[in-house]
Design brief:
heterodimer, A: about 375 residues, alpha+beta, 3-stranded antiparallel beta sheet, about 25% strand, B: about 160 residues, mainly beta, 7-stranded mixed beta sheet, 2 helices, 9 strands, about 40% strand, DNA replication (chain A), Sister chromatid cohesion protein Dcc1 (chain A), Dcc1 (chain A)
Chain lengths: ~375, ~160
């Protein structure tokens, strides 16, 4: 029977605490094995006051430390100098492993960081003024800073910026003001028609020049807006019709936060502003997670009315979000509440877990309703 | 702060690999050994002998003898693979290496240092060698104990 001598490391100073064990979810271990060493790298991100996360190229994982009651020795091979037979060297002794749990990108800080940095109409000429202002006190927040400080993978950061409609101007992040964005989109639609360009391969240059000449819209702003709503391939813009129609609808709905608007009236308005060509795409479903629909029974016949209720402005913490949702409405249908949870869960399984934890399900003739769990301690 | 993790699954840096009987418990360059309790060392452990590891080819059982104690181990497949991370120390900063070793985690204590800390994934391990039982005392084998062995296992 072969014998191996088990030894402690010869350089305890450099080896102690130099090893960590990281439990890999299946997809990550497959990614490592298939890449055969030449693959990308991961990063652990977080400020000292945050829980660290591990970011791959396109995913974010929360890191949890699990303390073991057993100890794990990390052993490597070594050849002993005297006899030449192999020995096993214990490099480090570990009492914990790190677990990875898939998590949503932590981009919520972005909204706070970008507050007051909005890019609006009329700022085109005031750019230097703005720069001067920035030197006075308002600090710039650049794309590089966002990459370094936000706990999200690069792909998720880019998607998050796109979703929040944030422009990158001279490296600085500037969210576009919603009315201005809507104005640009409507201009783009009308110019597609007036220049008789096809919406699936429109010349970026022509559109940008038309908007720059006629309305003083900066070309780089226009190009970035076009990239959000479609793909730019070799100077040609293939418009994402649904996304444009959706954004215009959102812009129309936004003023109805406190008062409501009748559904049919809203849809008519919406159809009018997108024009004949895209009228058929208009549908209230596009705006799910941004409105509340209610049947006004006082009117005769009863009408459906909409109010603007964006899920992006609800609290991030699940408990606080459910409290908010149940303050807004005492009970919810499953398909009504789902859009308002989509941005805090990674998948339907996690959503159901939250529903189980924070709500009580009731079944009646109309289906399943979710109500708040009774809380007597507030 | 950002801590980069490089994925470099190369063969062991010093070229030393385990013989096949040992490599079957982990990878060819790295094996995880799990003990119930921990190794309690008095004094300086640098380069000291812990004990003798034997592997029975037929039964795939391993035994570890530490001093008067004999431990029986077995091969356990991990539910999820473990990546073994090794702190990457650039060769130029030998002097500050000692400071690093005082910081066992990626905590803030190393965040402000000039040299950014990075970690390498040196192996992905799917098995481990587990010594889960209490050590059995061995009688009459005192002569075989290495004189410099200070190791001992403590069962919980």
């Amino acid at each position: 029977m072969p014998e191996h001598t088990l030894k402690f490391s010869f350089s305890t100073v450099t080896d102690t605490a130099a090893f960590k064990l990281l439990e890999l979810p299946t997809d990550l271990s497959k990614a490592i094995e298939s890449s055969s060493g030449a693959c990308s790298r991961w990063t652990i991100k977080g400020n000292p006051d945050e829980d660290a996360v591990l970011c791959t190229a396109d995913k974010t994982y929360a890191i949890r430390s699990v303390v073991l009651s057993n100890s794990v020795l990390v052993a490597t091979a070594a050849v002993s100098e005297d006899s030449g037979d192999s020995s096993v060297v214990v490099r480090d002794r570990l009492q914990e492993i790190m677990e990875l749990v898939l998590s949503v990108p932590r981009l919520h800080k972005l909204d706070v960081l970008l507050r007051g940095k909005e890019y609006d109409e009329g700022q085109e000429e005031d750019d230097e003024l703005y720069l001067g202002e920035a030197q006075d006190g308002r600090s710039k927040f650049t794309y590089q800073e966002a990459r370094a400080t936000l706990q999200a993978s690069d792909t998720e950061l880019d998607q998050g910026l796109k979703k929040r409609r944030v422009l990158i101007l001279n490296g600085e992040l500037r969210p576009i003001s919603p009315p201005y964005l809507n104005a640009i989109l409507e201009l783009l639609l009308t110019h597609l028609v007036s220049l008789s360009l096809p919406h699936d391969s429109a010349s970026v240059d022509k559109l940008c020049s038309a908007l720059a000449d006629g309305y003083d819209i900066r070309k780089d702003v226009c190009e970035q807006v076009m990239a959000w709503f479609g793909d730019i391939i070799i100077g040609e813009w293939s418009m994402d019709k649904t996304a444009v129609v959706r954004e215009i609808g959102l812009g129309l709905l936004r003023p109805y936060r406190d008062e409501s608007i009748r559904l049919d009236e809203f849809l008519a308005k919406w159809r009018k502003s997108v024009g004949d060509t895209f009228e058929s795409l208009v549908s209230a479903d596009l705006l799910s997670g941004n409105y509340l629909a209610q049947t006004d029974l006082l009117k005769e016949p009863p009408v459906v009315v909409l109010t603007y209720f964006p899920s992006s402005q609800l609290p991030i913490d699940p408990a606080a979000r459910f409290t908010d949702l149940f303050l807004t409405r005492p009970r919810w249908k499953a398909d009504e509440i789902a859009p308002f949870l989509a941005d805090i869960v990674v998948d339907a399984k996690e959503r159901d877990k939250f529903l189980l934890k924070y709500t009580r399900a009731l079944t009646d003739a109309e289906g399943v309703w979710y109500t708040a769990r009774a809380k007597y301690n507030g | 702060m950002i801590v980069p993790i490089n994925i470099s699954l190369s063969s062991p840096s010093d070229g030393n690999t385990f013989p096949p009987q040992l490599a079957q418990f982990g990878t060819e360059g790295l094996v995880l050994i799990e003990l119930q309790g921990k190794l309690d060392v008095v004094g300086d452990s640098e380069g000291q002998t812990i004990g003798t590891l034997r592997i029975d080819d037929a039964t795939k059982k391993s035994t570890l003898r530490i001093g008067h104690h004999l431990l029986e181990g077995k091969l356990v497949n991990l539910q999820k693979p473990l990546a073994v991370l090794h702190r990457h120390t650039p060769p130029s900063v030998k002097s500050s290496g000692e400071d690093y070793s005082d910081a066992p985690s990626h905590g803030d204590s190393v965040s402000q240092s000039a040299e950014p800390v990075s970690w390498d994934v040196m192996a992905v391990v799917k098995r481990k060698m587990v010594f889960s039982r209490r050590p059995m005392p061995m009688v009459g084998r005192a002569s075989a104990i290495a004189p410099d062995s200070k190791g001992g296992t403590k069962a919980k």
